Amino acid sequence: MLAALLVPVILGLLALAVDAGQAYTQRSASQTAADFAALAAAKSYATSANRTQAISAATEYAGRNGFVDGVNRASVSVYNPPQSGPHAGDPGFFEVVLSRPAPRFFSGVLHIGSPTVGARAVAGQSGGGGAVPWAVHTSFDWGAQIELEFDFLKAGLGAGNTMPARIDKPGIGNCNQATDDATGNQYCPGVYFGTHRALCAVTAPGCTDYTISSEPGQGQGEFFPKTVDAVNRRFQNTDLACDTWPEVQTNLVLNAACNPFGPNGNVNSRRVVLLIMVQDICDNTQPPCNMTITQFAPFFIDHIDDGKPCTPQLCLLEVDGYFLKWPPGFNDYSIAGTIALVQ
To answer: Do the Cβ atoms of 231 and 270 come closer than 8 Å?
Structure first.
C-alpha cells in the first residue's frame, strides 16, 4: 500500500529533476547568447559610434543564438546605457537581458508552472574606457608634476600644450548624459567616461585609425565650465582608496588596485585618465585640423586651476597632475578601448 502511494511521488520528483536539468541547460544557452549579443553591440559601437547600429548588432546575435524577441515567448532587451551595475549610465556599455520559459517535459502533468530562465550581460570598453578628449603635445618625465594648459584666446602651439579633440562626436556637451546622448554633444561625457571609439597610435601594428580632429569653436563660455564640471564629476565619484598620488602608484608605476584600464579594471578610479599624445597640436586659428596620435599615457589628475584671470588677451585653464608608468602587460602604443565582457 505504502509503495503504491510513493510511486507517484517518486515519478514526480524524477520529472522535476529532468525538467530542472533542461532549465539549467537553457540557462547556460541563454548566458552564451547574452554574452555574444553584448559583445557584438560593444564592438559595433567602438568602430562606428552609432548607437542604433550597435543595438541592431545585439539583437542580430541574440537571434543567431536562438533568442528572437516575441518568438516562442522569448524576451530580448538591449539597454544603452545599462540600467544597473557599476556601468549604469555609461553610454559606452551595452546591457543585454534575455529570458524565455524553460521547456517542460514531465512536470506539466503535475500542474507546475514553467519557470522563466534568463541571463544578463554587459559589455563595453574594459576598465576605464578609452582616452579623454585632450590632445597633449609635450615632453614629460614619469612622476613629474605637469600643468596641462588650455588656452583658446591665443593661436598657435605656444598657446598651451593641450587642446580638445573630437573622439566620439563633435560638440562641447552640457554634462547631462541623457541630453548629450540625444544631441551628439560628446565632449563633456568624453572627459567623464572616456572615448567609446577604439583609437590607436600610429606605431601600433595594424593601426588604421591614428588620426583625430581638433574640436573647433571652443571658448571661455563653453569649454571652461564644461571641463571643470566633468573633472569635478570624476573627483566626486572616484574610489577613496585611489584619490591621492601616493595611493595610485608605486615607484611611479600605476597600481593594479587603482588601474581603471584593462579587463576587470577599477572603474571607480576616476582620477586616473588616459591622455592622447600627439605629434603637434593644431593652430586653433583654422579649426578643425588633424592630429596624429603617437601614444597613450596614464595620467593622475591632482587638481584643476580655473581661477586664472580671463581677458581678451589671455584665458588659461590648467589641469595639474602626474604621468604614470604602465604596469606590466600594458603597451603605450596599443589600441585604447579593448572590448570585453564586464558583467
So the answer is: no
